[in-house]
């Protein structure tokens, strides 16, 4: 029996994936990596330093940047990103998600956030969603980021639930891999070809309801 839901945040709850994209695109330009839709997709769900490494690998420039140079670029991206998210309001909740959270809460499900973002507590607060969640997993507390199962395993743990009792919701391939690896049921939101490993697929957040999930599982 399903008793809880673990939510990714960027691209699932919050319309913030576009801001990560804007800020990383600028860093890609700076290091000389061509920005492509495939590169953009591959960064979803990947933590900050991991994303930077993928951008450098894509441009074949990894050996030009030592640890200090990387940290400076990551800080630059982060500063730009913080500017972009400074004006977030509840209007930036993705379509249908507040209604879905309200529906889950009323039905007695436990909910947690499993985001790779260190900005998750700030963003959840800005969106006015704090009260829906029992916990926001601190990505710094897990041994490895997505696609490793650790963060979604922790998201079940903080709810006091077994993985088999949890549905994880994600918009990234790395995140779906993390959910599946943790032994939870995965819901993918977005391109079905990208998220083909998901147990249940939806094209957009607006399609996600408890009834639609029940019908699919
Ligand atoms: C994930 C995003 O949720 O968080 C990634 O999908 C991002 O794009 C990652 O790189 C880390 O975010 P932050 O806010 O800690 O830099
Ligand atoms: Mg995401």
UniProtKB/TrEMBL annotation:
The record marks 115, 146 as: Important for catalytic activity and assists the phosphoryl transfer reaction to Asp8 by balancing charge and orienting the reacting groups. Its EC number is 5.4.2.6. InterPro entries: B-phosphoglucomutase_hydrolase, Beta-PGM, HAD-like_sf, HAD-SF_hydro_IA, HAD_sf, PGP-like_dom2. The active site is at residues 8, 10. Mg(2+) binds at residues 8, 10, 170-171. The keyword Magnesium applies. It comes from the Bacteria. It is an enzyme of class 5 (isomerase). Binds 2 magnesium ions per subunit. Its cofactor is Mg(2+). Belongs to the HAD-like hydrolase superfamily. CbbY/CbbZ/Gph/YieH family. This is Beta-phosphoglucomutase. The lineage of its organism: Bacteria, Bacillati, Bacillota, Bacilli, Lactobacillales. The gene is pgmB.
